[in-house]
What we know:
Elements: H1 2-18, H2 33-45, H3 50-67, H4 75-82, H5 99-106, H6 114-129, H7 133-137, E1 144-145, E2 151-155, E3 161-165, H8 168-181, H9 203-218, H10 231-243, H11 248-255, H12 260-268, H13 271-285, H14 299-305
Antiparallel strand pairs: 1-2, 2-3
Helix pairs in contact: 1-3, 2-3, 3-4, 6-8, 6-10, 11-12
Amino acid sequence: MLSYKDTLKLFVRFLINEQEININQFTMKDFTRKIIIEFLEYLRATGCSSSTANQRLAVLKSFANYCQIDSIENMFSLQEVMHIKSKKTVIKEIGYLDETQMRALINEPDVNRLSGLKHKTLLCLLYDTGARVQEICDLKVKDIFLENHPTVKLSGKGNKTRIIPISSDMKQLLNIYINTFQTDTKMNDRYLFLNKDMHQLSRDGVKYIIDKYTASILKRDSTFPKKVTPHMFRYSKSMHMVATGIPIIYIRDFLGHENITTTMIYAKADTRLKEKAINKLAPQIIKDEESKPDWTKNQDLLDFLNTFK
Length: 309
């Protein structure tokens, strides 16, 4: 509804400011394909992305469809609006870290310092659970279960919760972290990660921590990505799961996606990882030139191939 309202407001402003049209004299017969295309061109000229322009167009087409009922005499021109085609959009490449880069980042904090221990636990948990950054910020001590089958309870969009299994290494790190920072068992209702003022860690706080260790790595490795966002941990976990062949249905549930089409983005973006895996596997399968069989000496095979003439 907000998108619908915003688009119509932008369209009215365009008519008044750019087309110098008296809005009180603008009627349905003026709502034409030509004026809509000019509006879309104006949006793109002012920096609007093709994707956003397409969303604006979808609203106006929906509006035209609705208006047909009360404006039969303008049905032809309204249908012309409804047949305006969207511009093709370029799919942005998903930003993620490969396994080596992620390993370097989550191991950058010095665990011999209290701050380093907290930061490493945070970075590792962000990756291991594939959680959204707000889900990590909202975690409380009582949401961590470190018994036989260690899990973390995440509260996602729409207050929907999901239980995520964690690795044995993550369990060990969380045990150390909780034993170090949680001396009172009555504190189970407190947030797992606090800032220096002992308040809930914010999204900006998480970004600050990631930026800190990214900058630290860049000092010695100029090839490391210069910008790493909290959400890239989620992207990276997803890409790594796809690369290992984990079923897409499981990945969907792991990430808490409503629709599997959202999860499929990672499968489509997996080309680079597949290429890397294939190149890694090839030397194990394909021997060097000297060990390749000489098919010309296989008379049975030659006789068989000669039957196809």
